[in-house]
Design goal:
The chain is of the alpha+beta class. The protein is 62% helix and 12% strand. Strand 2 and strand 3 (239-250) form a beta hairpin.
């Protein structure tokens, strides 16, 4: 048991170390030399660095510190400690490693600077660490106003980019928004991975064949709901019982599943939904974030 715990801890450390190195590369190789920004507390730190010339190595640490303390009360102490260690590691990385400036091309900076930042933050998240305390601020604010965490984070980032537009010019703010968008998309891909789970619901008149193929050919577990199909405009009172089949597959298996269902019943109604978290059942992938 201890060996398993030690192995998982080692994997977490490797993840966050890689994440810190990528974030440092994105900041010093792309964003800081070209006066670009990102969202969250990192964006606030970059903005303070540009407006007042404060050392970014220390600003990132100081800006996140109050949020780390809040995180100990709003989330848990383990989360707060991991966040503190991650941010401290990033600050040390920025201080000690002399990353070179990669390019001055604004489009390349906004896309690849955001992409490398996204890889870094995503890798840290896979190890259970956080390199930005913006989620803690959103959780704290969300307890007092009727907005979701995502909406609050979006609002904070809008304020950051508006200030950047006023103080440093609209083109810089627009390129920085592109940086933030690039980082967000990459974070999602790194955290979820190519094995992101997708829920699939299938309504078919040949549900027995569909069930057999999904289990025997695709090797997936299924859940069956009892329902009725029909209720068309021209024959509203005509319906018949049917089995509604639900299963969970990875992104790589989704096309294969659709092809299987289409072969059995071209008229089958199939719709999908993204599954953010899974636990138990026959799914073996363990989330590390």
């Amino acid at each position: 048991m201890k060996k398993i715990v030690h192995k998982e801890l080692l994997i977490d450390i490797v993840y966050v170390t890689i994440g810190i190195l990528f974030c440092g590369f994105a900041l010093k190789g792309f964003l800081i030399p070209n006066h670009f920004f990102d969202g969250g507390v990192t964006g606030i730190s970059l903005l303070l660095h540009e407006l007042y010339g404060w050392n970014i190595n220390y600003v990132i640490m100081l800006a996140n510190l109050p949020l780390v303390i809040m995180g100990a009360f709003l989330v848990n102490k383990t989360f707060a400690i991991k966040t503190l260690l991650g941010i401290l590691g990033l600050s040390i990385c920025l201080t000690l490693i002399p990353y070179p400036q990669i390019t001055a091309d604004k489009l390349l900076v906004s896309i690849f600077g955001g992409a490398f930042m996204g890889i870094g933050i995503g890798m840290a998240m896979r190890g259970g660490f956080a390199l930005d305390g913006i989620e803690v601020l959103a959780l704290y604010t969300g307890k007092r106003i009727s907005f979701t965490v995502s909406e609050i984070i979006l609002g904070i980032n809008i304020i950051i980019f508006l200030i950047a537009a006023i103080e440093l010019g609209l083109p810089t703010a627009l390129y920085s928004i592109l940086t933030y968008f690039s980082a967000s998309r990459v974070i999602n891909f790194v955290v979820e991975g190519i094995e992101e789970f997708t829920g699939v619901t299938i309504i078919s008149g040949k549900s027995e064949l569909v069930k057999e193929e999904l289990v025997m050919r695709l090797g997936r577990g299924i859940t069956v709901y009892k329902g009725e199909r029909g209720f068309l405009k021209d024959s509203f009172n005509v319906s018949q019982p049917c089995d509604i089949v639900f299963t969970v597959v990875t992104r790589l298996e989704l096309l294969k599943l659709k092809n299987i269902v289409h072969e059995l019943d071209p008229k089958a109604f199939v719709f999908t939904s993204v599954i953010k978290e899974t636990a138990g059942g026959v799914l073996s992938r363990k989330a590390r974030h």
